[in-house]
Design brief:
Length: 282
């Protein structure tokens, strides 16, 4: 891209290696950003991974980029880090959480994640007091994966009665009704909701504003979508460093617009103060 750009504007041809050498100056900045100190307390941290293909020892390997976005007590969001690793695993996430701890994070009130096996255990090992909320949208996607097209609309409407219920009691009753109706045809769906219920149902204990903030990982999915826009022309990255360079520059560009805080933050902050009175600073 840069090569053709310089050719168009200045009529100069610059080699790939020269461009790489120049853009490599970004790497120390990216590493410094990745190791910068963080705040001691985050109200909510969203964690998710995005996948890319990278060339490694003559082969094309699928790599996961682990991303954490935090919302601090003032309601401002910030990308806490982006880590390139092998395919997504709870073990790597534990390393990410430890890295955040080493950079100064002492407490996270609520962590919002996908329902990767072992993820909540990894969080509990590093931040034992943190509440975990699995993303409802991820759960719905998994639930609808093998449903026949003609059943999909009705089945999703029945599931909506579960996750949109006013409280946990109504939600478990709705899950029972769902189970009675659909288990013969799709036995795995209600079982999956029951297996993950401890982390799917966390948000029921909170008022609507806080609930809306945490029941999906939308905050991070929106960020990932913007990253994909920037990287979509690149089907394979030559190295981990080239991937990190591009993601770092894209992140700087995306987060420039993150100046304000959520409109309903004063309400959410007041709700957090009630639920986490002993963990918020005076």
């Amino acid at each position: 891209d840069i090569e053709s750009h310089i050719q168009d504007i200045y009529g100069l041809s610059v080699s790939d290696t020269t461009i790489s050498r120049i853009t490599d100056k970004v790497l120390p900045l990216a590493r410094e950003w990745q190791q910068r100190p963080l705040e001691s307390l985050y109200a909510v941290v969203f964690m998710d991974a995005i996948h890319y293909h990278v060339r490694s020892e003559g082969q094309i390997v699928k790599k996961a980029v682990y991303i954490a976005i935090g919302i601090n007590l003032e309601g401002h969001k910030d990308v806490l880090g982006m880590w390139v690793g092998e395919n997504e695993s709870a073990k790597f996430w534990a390393g990410v959480l430890n890295s955040m701890r080493n950079r100064g994070v002492e407490d996270i009130l609520i962590a919002c994640t996908d329902n990767l096996t072992g993820f909540s255990a990894a969080i509990e090992a590093v931040f034992p007091k943190t509440e975990v909320q699995n993303c409802i949208i991820h759960q719905l996607r998994n639930s609808s994966k093998y449903v026949s097209y003609k059943d999909l609309k009705e089945l999703m409407a029945d599931l909506k009665e579960v996750y949109a219920a006013p409280d946990e009691g109504s939600a478990t009753a709705a899950l029972e009704r769902f189970s009675d109706r659909w288990d013969k045809k799709y036995p795995k769906i209600s079982q999956s909701w029951r297996d993950n219920w401890a982390n799917l149902s966390t948000y029921f204990k909170y008022p609507p504003e806080l609930r809306r903030l945490i029941y999906t990982t939308n905050t991070i999915e929106g960020f990932n979508r913007q990253l994909r826009k920037v990287t979509k022309s690149k089907s394979v990255f030559p190295t981990d460093d080239s991937l990190l360079k591009m993601l770092y520059l894209a992140m700087i560009d995306i987060t420039k617009k993150w100046t304000g805080r959520r409109q309903d933050w004063s309400i959410i902050h007041a709700q957090l103060a009630v639920y986490y009175e002993d963990r918020l600073p005076e």
